[in-house]
Amino acid sequence: MEPSFLFGQFLGGLTAAMFLFLIASGLSLIFGVLRVLNFAHGSFYMLGAYLAWQIVRWVGPEGEGFWLAALGAALGVAILGAAIERLLLRHLYRREELYQLLFTYALVLVLADVAKVTWGTGQLSVSRPPSLSGSLQLLGITVPHYNLFIILLGPTIALVFWLLLQRTAIGRVVRAAALDREMLSALGANVGWIYTGMFFVGSFLAGLGGALVTPTQSIVPGMDVAVIVDAFIVVVIGGLGSFWGTFLGALIFGQVLAFGILVFPGFSIFAVSALMATILVVRPWGLLGRPIR
Questions:
Q1: What is the C-alpha separation between 217 and 229, in angstroms, rounded?
Q2: Where are the domains of the chain?
Q3: Torsion over CA of 76, 81, 82 and 83, rounded to 10 degrees?
Q4: Average pLDDT of 41-68?
Q5: Does this model's pTM top 0.90?
Q6: Which partner from 162, 195, 221, 255 sits 20 to 30 angstroms from 61, CA to CA?
Q7: In terms of DSSP H, where are the helices of the chain?
Q8: Are 18 and 157 in contact (CB under 8 A)?
């Protein structure tokens, strides 16, 4: 194995990791604040992909309409997620966690049927934006500009959200809501709208991830189930509710998947699952997570 080949595998794993981080970060954010395991997060990702394809058809594939489509799809999914939280999910916060799981799983079934009825069951695809359609030579391999954009976008989003949560007044309120909702409400804060806002942001990240993956992956029914499994593996490895833990979990997942194919051809998914099982045994709350009391 030549160094250039290994570097190509590394970049491939890094690209996959950043796609997964975009999706899993929203899932981890929702759990960290609302303490809700949202199985429908993968459905929001799928809807983001379908909406991006639809908007591209409306504005035309020429030019830089892809960016408008990605932003519009993410906002559309975010509005849908906020409406679901505001009108339906909030009635289950004081119920047992089983009711929340069943509700979000029911959303998966409903949204999957809605997508099939609206866009059919065939494969759809979106072209890369002209501004990122090229490639460059890096250490002997060809790297698409779009992949480099995704690799840089992941750390940028992680840093921006970390600064917002740790260095702003809004971030302090959000962290307080995650720690003690009743005390924050007694101090006069509208915790309900904080929860809605976090669900909006988490859904936005899922929709954005779905929109951005369309130039590299076909849009098909069932993509929601596949991605939610990978997203849960990422947040379990990194730690539920930990933003940087999710980033670390995505990096580990991507590299184990990329190099696991070389070591165990056909068993790369097994390698990731075995890693998750080991972490659950040794450190059930994840690498950077904290035990839930």
A1: 17
A2: 21-221
A3: 90
A4: 91
A5: yes
A6: 221
A7: 3-34, 41-59, 65-87, 97-119, 145-167, 169-179, 181-186, 191-213, 223-238, 243-263, 268-282
A8: no
